[in-house]
């Protein structure tokens, strides 16, 4: 068994022990072996990290740097992320269960790209924008500047720990903010590793901090803390609602990336092989533990049986197992709690009258007995009103809903509290685009899925959250806009605004 790694929290530019001295165990979900220990933080640790972030912000050591200087450091960090690709992807896979095939390609590249693109964008952003002087009043000059918000809190889930952290800290740092990150309790390791990389790249002490500990106590305290000016949260809609309440009390800026139950509409003209692969990729990538997974398959009644047969045949060819093996297609479920949630939703589905066409069981035997593995599962004859169809499961479970006409299909797709992702499968480009335009979701994929890019915005409609991550939308979400207005007339009597109350008499 590999050595168990010990981490401290990252506060004020150094790894430090937690206030309580207690530690939390981090396990490999494929084997349940303990692979790391991190401090179980408490309110004192949050106070300490926020004090450091505030001090760093007020000192101007980062916030007053020229955008070009910050950009250079963030570019450096991007290069160092790539140079540390093996270590980062190994640790991400080991602790989150994501396959090494994915983490060593997509995840590391996404983190580096978030940093590099945020750095490139701040160099491009106009430093000031000038407003026209209206012709009907005395000479005045108005200009507009963007400034950092201050101290941000970034709270992230366990499914893509590094990527979702980078979606927050890259734009936050680019705009000159300080940030305190709180990763999910079961996957804190790579966020701590990134702290070291950012520090070594030149991000000054106190600007980037990581606290580790339970969300319900420490995360809640962080979100409600008066020293936090902006909260960036990715996680469940239930916790997101609580964060929004906390933000409302302090009128804090907030971005919420929450849950989803994304619909995939197959059109009648679709190529069945494309529809099959698109469906499988949509609901099985990362064993279904993706917020924008396509988990409501809305399919023409006449294609239903042929498509479901194809899905089952293809599922049988997938390799499910050790995420550390390059040959593995689907890794474990990230935790026992999540495995139990999936089991419970399968029970609910059966109780609601859906039929199991495939799967539905915890995998057992061999490697499966050691960790948390669930069979790819397909429910057929679902109605959109069923609980397992409406609620997010966050596992490899597909719900197939047959339809008779396209208007009905679009209605079913939009009849959801969520609005994160959506997809259309068709050979008819024009028709697919018309359907995409009618979907009430933040992203729509046509004949593909899971394409998230640092140069396009990502976020949800409805209860999937508000605000957008990535691209310049993210930079806007980590900055305040200031209008500075200067009256250019020198004499008191010429200042036309003052005449409104007779001051130039
Ligand atoms: P979660 O909401 O349970 O936890 C997310 C984070 O919030 C964790 O760090 C947790 O410790 C912390 N937390 C928990 N309670 C808190 C509280 N009261 N105050 C402050 N912080 C608290 O979510 P999860 O189980 O880690 O992740 C799965 C969820 O995340 C799913 O609903 C999924 O859809 C969502 N998600 C959304 C996106 C997106 O971009 N929209 C991406 C990935 C995951």
UniProtKB/TrEMBL annotation:
One of its GO terms (molecular function) is oxidoreductase activity, acting on the aldehyde or oxo group of donors, NAD or NADP as acceptor. The active site is at residue 257. Pfam families: Aldedh (PF00171). Residues 15-484 form the Aldehyde dehydrogenase domain. PROSITE patterns: ALDEHYDE_DEHYDR_GLU (PS00687). SUPFAM superfamilies: ALDH-like. Keywords: Oxidoreductase. It comes from the Bacteria. Coiled coil: none annotated. Belongs to the aldehyde dehydrogenase family. This is Aldehyde dehydrogenase (NAD+). It comes from Thermosyntropha lipolytica DSM 11003.
